[in-house]
Predict the structure.
Amino acid sequence: MPRRLRSKLPRDHRLLRLETLLRLRWYAVIVQAILILVGEFPVGLDLPLGSIGLVLAFAVALNMALHVRAPAGYRMEESAAFVLLGADILQLAALLYFAGGVTNPFSIFFLAPVLISAMALPLQRTIVLGVLAMAATTFILFYHEPLRSSGGEVLAVPDYYSPWLWLALQAAIVFVGLYAWRIAEEARQLAQALAMTELVLEREQHISDLDGLAAAAAHELGTPLSTIAVVAGELLHGSIKDEALKADLQLIKEQSARCRQILAQITTLGEPNAAPFRTVTVSGLVAEVIARYRDRGAPVTLLCAGPDPEPRCLRNPGLLYGIGNLLQNAAEFAVSAVQISVRWDDRDVTIEICDDGPGIPDFVLERLGEPYLTSRPWDENNPEAGPGGGMGLGLFIAKVLLERSGATLNAANRVDPETGATIRLMWPRHLFNELVRNEVWEFQISGLSSDAAGSRSGLKEAKTLSGSPESS
């Protein structure tokens, strides 16, 4: 992950809290002591309590030392947690050495340190701990003190049964470790991807904040501009004989009037009813996206079809980013052209993006929209890539934003002899229409206000590129 984005993400949540690990270790020591006492007295086993007591005393001393030296909320580094979990494996192996080896049913507790490591530590450290646990179980398979009754009788299982117990324990360590790590890793990737999504939306929020600052500045500048216009007018009606000075005063008056007109337009951009900038037709929305990404790759053609009235929606940063990301990917991979088809009827609103490139690889197509899934490396020298570019996050973010709006995203490769891929977005018509009335969907962003002339010119340019008539 690039340094400039990694620095903005929250600290790695995989670090274990020492208090949590100590609590688990105290539970383990207490349970082990209870089991030893139960086996010695009610059951009647003859256990080497002195040796077992030394092993338990070591675990208690280690817990107390950690409790005294570190604060309760301290989060352990990966190396410290790794060493502590390794000590737990060795301590359990020492206990079972004096209590029957792998034939002791409580050898199943070897899974606990491996499971904790799989949930909280990197895969490499989990593998090392798993190998250590497997080596410890192998050692106590051959070298251990047998269980004896109070009468001195050896309590042993048949010789052919011990290897199968050992094999089952090895398989359980491998399976549980890998399974738990895979589940935890997917959760970690999803959490980081969602954090990256929040960074992207935060950037859009900054744009909205600029709208409010612009409106405030417009109100503040209105008074001095009016004063300038009044003073310039009074001077023009005075007894000034210098024609050059009169021309300058007239220019000042005209320019101050122009500034007031511009400021009046700025103050209306953030108002809820500032049509047509607040809402846009679906074809206008796509045309605006095309205008933004027209220089990113292959030329884009826009085709629109559907009965009147054309559906409208809010000009929302989530929609603009989501559709724009899909269009950018198609334009970059296309060989000669990209075609966007916008269709609507009484039931659905559909946007299809088709390109004539090599198509989507099968491994991407099967897991489309998952975070950190990409076939392109991150390019830190390409500022146009934007957040998530090359990291497999762009499509994930786009999919999340579009699905929150009610859209369904499907992707497929085109059938031979055609080449390329088709991505289809579909909204139920009633949900798409509600995007105008339901401002809760704006992802906690007050709205993306764009310059009026720029929006209109972008729509016009996109329509010119596509050759389709302008839609109102």
Q: What stands out?
A: Residues 1-13, 272-276, 377-391, 438-472 have pLDDT under 50 and may be disordered. Residues 161-236 form the longest helix (76 residues).
